Amino acid sequence: MPLIPEEPQIHESAQGPRATPASGRTAPTPRPVPGPRPAAPPRPGRPGPLRPTPPVQRTSRDVAAKPGPSGPVAAAAPVAAPATPQIQLIPASLEGALDAAEEAVDLLLDSGRAPGDVLVITTGEQHPWAAHELSFGEASYWAQHDAGDDVFYTDAAVASRAGSRPVVVVAVNGGPDTAAATALPLAHARAGALLIVCGDPQQINSVLGAGV
Fold first, then answer.
1. Whether the Cβ atoms of residue 90 and residue 197 lie closer than 8 Å to each other
2. How large is the greatest C-alpha to C-alpha distance in the chain, in angstroms?
3. What is the pTM assigned to this prediction?
4. pLDDT digits (tens, 9 = 90+) for 20-73
5. How far apart are CA 184 and CA 70, in angstroms?
6. Can you tell me the distance from the alpha carbon of 182 to that of 196, in angstroms, rounded to the nearest whole number?
7. Could you give the CA distance from residue 19 to residue 120 in angstroms, rounded to a whole number?
8. What's the rounded Cα separation, in Å, for the pair 195 and 61?
9. Which of 89, 96, 176, 202 has the fewest C-beta atoms lying within 10 Å of its C-beta?
10. Strands, E, within 36-141: which ranges?
11. Are 122 and 98 in contact (CB under 8 A)?
C-alpha cells in the first residue's frame, strides 16, 4: 500500500514569503505619488524655479507717519490723473446728425445710463425739446438743467452755460462755420467719461485734432 506524504502543517503565526532585496535590506514602504505640479517660471539671473515671496502684511502702525529728523512726516497721497473722455464718432449728414444723436441717446438709456448723465448739444437747429421748453422762458428751461434728473438739450450758442455730465452728445447739424469749432472743444471739456459726435467725420476730425 503506497504511503501518502503528510501535508505540512501551516501555523497561524506563519506569514507568506517576504521579498528581500538583493542587498539584504528591507524594501521601503511605498508612498502615494502626488500629481504633477506646474513649475513656477524661473526668475532672470537665478537658476531653477523659485516660489514667489508671500506679501508682507502691514499693520496700522506700519502705515502711520514715520518720524523724520524734524518731526513726523506724513505719507504723500497719490495724485489722480485727470480723466480723459472716450471719443466716439458716428458718421452722419447735416440732415441726419440730429436723428443719429437721438439714436445714440436711446442706446445710452437702454444700456443703463441715467437720463441725468446725458447732455446733448446741437450746432445748428435746436432740438425740438429745447425749443419747446424755451417757450416757457429761460428760467424754467435752465432750472431743468440744474435739476439734473433728465436728458438736457441745448445749442452751441449757450452750451457754455451747461455744466459737466458723464456723457455729452454733439449733433453737428449745421449752423455757422464756427459753431462746430466752438462746440466740440467745449463738449470735450464737459464730458466726464464719453463724448459722442454725430456728423461729417472729416470736419469733426479736423476740429478735434486742432482743438482737443
1. yes
2. 138
3. 0.62
4. 444 444 444 444 444 444 444 444 444 444 444 444 444 444 444 444 445 444
5. 51
6. 16
7. 90
8. 45
9. 202
10. 66-68, 71-73, 86-91, 118-122
11. yes
